[in-house]
Model the fold of this input.
Amino acid sequence: MVSRLILVLGDQLSPDVAALKSADKSSDIIVMAEVADEAAYVPHHPKKIAFLFAAMRHFAQTLRDDGWTVDYTQLDDAAPHASIGAALLAAAERHGTSKVVATEPGEWRLISHLNETPLEVTQKEDDRFVATRAEFEAWAEGRKELRLEWFYRDMRRKTGLLMESDKPAGDKWNFDHDNRKPASGSVDFSGPMQFTPDQITNEVLDLVEARFPENFGTLRPFWFGVTTTDARRALTHFIKGGLAKFGDYQDAMLQDEKFLWHSILSMYLNAGLLSPLEICRAAEQAWLDGNAPLNAVEGFIRQIIGWREFVRGIYFHEGPDYTSRNALGHGRALPALYWGGETKMLCLSQAIDQTRTEAYAHHIQRLMVTGNFALLAGIDPHEVHEWYLAVYADAYEWVEAPNTIGMSQFADGGVVGSKPYVSSGNYIDRMSDYCKSCAYSVKTKTGEGACPFNLLYWHFLDRHRSRFSDNPRMGNMYRTWDRMNADKRETILSEADAFLRDLESGKPV
Ligand SMILES: Cc1cc2nc3c(=O)[nH]c(=O)nc-3n(C[C@H](O)[C@H](O)[C@H](O)COP(=O)(O)OP(=O)(O)OC[C@H]3O[C@@H](n4cnc5c(N)ncnc54)[C@H](O)[C@@H]3O)c2cc1C
Ligand code: SF4
Done:
């Protein structure tokens, strides 16, 4: 007799996921479904859809091989389901049970959807993270400001990663000071491990090609791994070839170098094909074996047990209205250049072109190029959020929204960061080789050919003066602005306004 349905969502592809751990192979039925709503609530990149469907089909096969009964609906079945709830209702009828066990989704929208499904649904806490939601709440309780550094130290103590008894390895918690070098010369890492699609994946590629022809993004060549075995090989490949220089060059950008020394593991990690601790232990071992320096390994581990856990905590702490916040009142529509429209700004075209081909851009491209531009130009943060959610293979709301709404757009009014991440063209010039080949001149501050980041930077500071001029971390910027003569300030503001008018009118900028 069937006792319960066990729901496994597309980003829960791990045998250790909470609902599966509690299931009984002899009587429970696993439900997995490729549904139209999830594939289309934002126009996801075709590589992202293909990755998730292919990984789901492979995972379902692994479960069957392991003796589980899996009720799997494909999007190209004769009667596919519109939503997860519809798939559960149909399975409940087929198998004669109304009991469902799910692992809590990483998105308020889906949590409510499951709560509203007229079945007996139990949502178990997702325990694939280092910090539980309750631990984060306890940490946040009573703090005036939630800042990563203190939380991160607690995660180091909790996991014992890079700890020598109660002290941090190397006597420092954070080696960022040694990182952030601009890259020069050639990249001696071959980039992420690439996989050849098998028959299951090829069927998914055909389906995605037929069903999502209009979505922004290039589907083929498709090189992502789709199983835990693949993802572990990609991890080993990165630890051997990329990790040692990850720290030094994590903020660097180079023309036509899409991956540099980054791991390209976030899509595997977020879908459940890898666990955060297995990645961090592999990195720690490389340091213990003398194969990677401490600054690289600490920097890498901080991203995973620090930032990744921190932003998840913030997402649940802040509640379901988080993605509609707009503290700076920005309302300009997302320009067409984000969807591949023409632009002369080389930094933006590089970041967006590789987003289109790979469903990937690294952190500084997301934060200091596409994010910085959207913030300076006053783009509606909700539109910016939906763009990031759509175009990256690793994007799920729990991790994407605090990074976009919070860190990148300051739309949460300072929950994630104490000041907005804004910069003029100088930062991009320092960290990349883009500017030397750009149609604009980064050294030119006004007039013909002036880099738009230079104009928009001051425009942003000027229009948000009342909010930021008292921020101790921004005082220098305002002092520099105030020292400029009035004519120069006026020229900058009027040229920035003209640029924004061109941007709004759809003129290529
Ligand atoms: C506007 C914006 C949107 C973002 N959206 C997402 C998203 O949807 N999904 C996502 O996983 N990351 C997101 N990030 C964070 C970060 O850019 C990506 O995690 C990273 O680029 C993934 O590439 P990688 O695997 O090569 O990472 P690496 O540079 O190799 O870093 C290692 C790992 O650290 C983790 N990590 C690093 N930075 C962050 C961070 N800020 N928040 C959470 N985890 C982090 C990732 O799991 C990553 O795989 C976003 C950042 C910004 C600024
Ligand atoms: S000059 Fe300005 S627009 Fe061009 S690449 Fe540099 S920062 Fe980007």
Residues 149 and 393 are 27 Å apart (CA to CA). The chain has 22 helices and seven strands. The pocket of flavin-adenine dinucleotide (ligand 1) is lined by residues 262-266, 269-270, 300, 303-304, 307-308, 311, 362-363, 366-367, 371, 388, 392, 394-395, 399-400, 403-404, 407-408 (CB under 6 Å).
